[in-house]
Design a protein that fits this description.
- α6 crosses α7.
- Helices cover 27% and strands 24% of the residues.
- The strands form six sheets. A nine-stranded mixed β-sheet has the order 2-1-10-9-11-12-13-14-15, with helices on both faces. The chain has a four-stranded parallel β-sheet with strand order 4-3-5-6, with helices on one face. A four-stranded antiparallel β-sheet has the order 16-17-19-20.
- The radius of gyration is 23 Å and the shape is globular.
- It has two domains: 410 residues, 3-Layer(aba) Sandwich (Rossmann fold), CATH 3.40.50.12780; 101 residues, GMP Synthetase, Chain A, domain 3, CATH 3.30.300.
- The mean pLDDT is 90.
Amino acid sequence: MEPRLMTDENFSTELSPQIQHARSLSAPYDFRYRNLTDVVFARAGSDAPFLTFTTDDGTRQQWSYKDLWYQASFLAEHLNKDIGLQVGDRIATLTGNTPETVLLYVAAWFLGVTVVPVNSTEDDERIAYILEHGKVAVAFAPPEQAHRVKICPVVTKLEFSHCTRGIVNRTLPPDTEALIVYTSGTTGAPKGVVLEHQNLIADAQGIAAWHGFTENDRAMLVLPIHHVNGIVVTLVTPLVSGGSVVLNRKFSASRFWKTVAEEKCTWCSVVPTILAFLCETHPSGIAIPPDFRHLICGAGPLTTDLAKRFDSVFGARVVHGYGLSETTCYSCFLPSDLSTAENAHWLWECGFPSIGIPLPENEMAIHDENGCALPENTRGEIVIRGVNVMRAYFKRPDANASAFTHGWFRSGDEGFWRLGADGRPYFFITGRLKELFIRGGVNYSPLEIDEVLNAIPGVKAAMAVGFENNFYGEEIGAYVQREPGVALTEAQILAACLQSLPFNKAPKVVVFGEEFPVTSTGKYQRGKLKGQFVAWKDAEFRK
């Protein structure tokens, strides 16, 4: 069906054709389910496990698909009859990685209510903005977080044991609003990404098909489920494929492989920082369980050095991919059936780890600033169109006009594509366009410099940082964390960089540190490091 577009507070009628084009495909697309209620209903009578978790008192519990159906329908009755929620209302969740959060999501979708997931570690001002801007009717939070909700009523305990009938609305149209996910940008007000039931279904069935997930697969869920990666990849995707999920309250490097083995997990979705933590804390003689297939990795810059290091430590396959909240989650992956040599080629022999080829639910291209497609190996903006593209940014007509200017969703990421021996276009990301360093009027990619820095022996982790400079407008620095016990000097790092980079592109100064600012989903916040380099604003660096 043709997506229904909002034309009031989100964008003008003049922009509708561009958004319509960006949210469609050149060929028809087959949705296996009409809405998320139908996804759960398809297995409502099954005693097969869906969710395994540990309660506050340490007891291991497991819900079957039948349990999920009944409990979510009873909770939906409670939300409707006792709290007064109905189709079109919005709820916020500050409840973290708990089984109650999963129930809230499913119950809300049963009713046609929109979920606005909130990261409870955000500051009070940002939480207040999200609740007010998102027009949230009621927020759900644990008692210790309740005082932070001042904009709307707050519920601290789910009381639905008295419910006996259950409510499930199966007549919801596919374009019913399901989520408003607020982006984790480091500057300016966060933007609310409006995702529909059909967005989540399309992305989940594309992910499941790409990786060959079936009812026999079991996901290890360690990422926060206030983010699309945790929601779409390790909750909705198993729902679509009939698999099961092991819910972790948070990631633990020391327990990761132990839990994988005990629970017989076959796959996990992670971010690059988790790969780094696992490399640092791996027990000696660790053996990857034989049934474990691979790790999905994305949502942050993966360096070739980290990909190679993880492979040498564990030998476990990493399937690299890319996507944004605005495209529901993933838009492309490396093929999971590549040979070991082919996977190694695309991960660490091309200068950057490839993010793979497009999933069937979307198309991808590299465009110039005028919306024209660019040829192979030419850098430009990564753009996407397809049935997983968001409805719009909520109440942000300015952002929508910019994002959909040329009839594709403009990601804001710089990249290029390269034709593989198999005849398919493999994509690469080289950095955020807003993060490109502009030194003397010339643009430089931070990820290219990151690759050089992280390959230096003795460097544990490093990041290139563009900082204000009175001679070139912007200069390039390096923020470096050394390996324990390594006496690596600034001069050695700068000299190593000059072996691979020309002077104008190489870092001119090094700041050593022990911690990198990251978001709750593990994304490095490069911009927050600029303040470390203010002492060199007036410095002139000569070759």
